[in-house]
Amino acid sequence: MTTIQTLPSLSVQPADKYRGAVVEDLQLPPAFALPAGEPISRAIELAYERDFSHIPVLDRHRKPIGYVDVAALKARWEAGKADPDDKVLQYLTKFKRSPSQPYTLITPETPLAELEAFLQNSIFALVTDGARKFVLAVATSQDLLNFVSRRGM
């Protein structure tokens, strides 16, 4: 007998859970990303204005190189372990890219079932265009839960 993993309080088969919905159907707010040289004070300010918990960080060629965890950054600042003028690069968590951990492309057309599988091992997903030139949004497991609850699934 096959075991089927479901979201809390759902008893729908995985293939039917999202009814063919894709990332675009989540209606995510547009992402913003920061250059690596941005001061952490600005990162915290922007994150709280937009209610974001993680902010993608870009290199000088505008390619995502990692992210900052806003709550951890704010805690360091409040504890006196980070200066407001420090650059986000100093507190960056780099994305792991290697032959054993290939880049997973998440676009607006990615099925939600694929996004859910990706988020089982990641705290968020960067939603990019197909060419990976632009970060369009940031998706989390909470976004999936909100989608399911809004749809009454």
Structure, explained:
- With 153 residues, this protein is an alpha+beta fold.
- It has helices at residues 14-17, 40-50, 70-78, 112-119, 141-151; strands at residues 34-35, 54-58, 64-69, 93-94, 125-128, 135-139.
- The strands form two sheets. Strands 1-2-3-4 form a four-stranded mixed sheet.
- Strand 1, helix 2 (40-50) and strand 2 (54-58) form a beta-alpha-beta unit.
- Residues 1-12 have low confidence and may be disordered.
Please describe the topology of this protein.
Blueprint lengths: L13 H4 L16 E2 L4 H11 L3 E5 L5 E6 H9 L14 E2 L17 H8 L5 E4 L6 E5 L1 H11 L2
Parallel strand pairs: 1-2
Antiparallel strand pairs: 2-3, 3-4, 5-6
Keywords:
alpha+beta; 4-stranded mixed beta sheet; 16% strand; two-stranded antiparallel sheet; 153 residues
Number of helices: 5
Structural class: alpha+beta
Low-confidence stretches: 1-12
Shape: globular
- Biggest sheet layout: 4 strands, mixed
User: β content, as a range?
Assistant: 15-25%
The termini sit apart by 24 Å
| CA-atom Rg in angstroms | 17 Å
Mean pLDDT metric: 85
What kind of assembly state do the chains in view correspond to?
A: single chain
Could you write a compact summary of the structure shown?
By secondary structure, the chain is an alpha+beta fold.
